[in-house]
Amino acid sequence: HSRPSVGGAPSLGGAGHSSTRGRGGAGREHGPEGPVLAAGALHQWVWDSAAPLWESGHLGEAVQAAARTLNAHLQTKIGRRDASEWKLITDAFSTKDPQPGRPRLRLMEPDGSDTFINRHEGAGFFARGCYQALRNVLVHEVNQEPSEAYALQALAAFSLVASWIDDAWVSTAD
Question: Is the pTM of this model over 0.70?
Fold first, then answer.
């Protein structure tokens, strides 16, 4: 069983260059090889849920599994089962004070600074974008299997969201 990687993986390019084909790539050439992203470097929640499907060649389903698992971890972390995906992420990363039954994730102390606002709003926008542009599209595009490069990039995006959720602390209304 091989682990996917972006950069020097033979399936994603040749010696010295990598080429991205399929979604968003259209065969364009990139410059010299850069760092390699091995699947094992992805957040554990993402890769552990995606790996069995990836290994069997079900790349779109692997991304969907990562998205479902991430949603479940977020629900568990903030103790909410009444919302998922868009609504859950919106509430979790809100810069507003926590409300009863609507805790918030905090990536830093809520000091009202531009950095606080940017980190939380940016994380929320990015996470919602992952669900809208990646997970939802894969679910609704029947018989459209993503390329290996696209699927790995999607897993990397969900991995970043997983890291933010994992690293954040929960702020509740007292």
Answer: yes
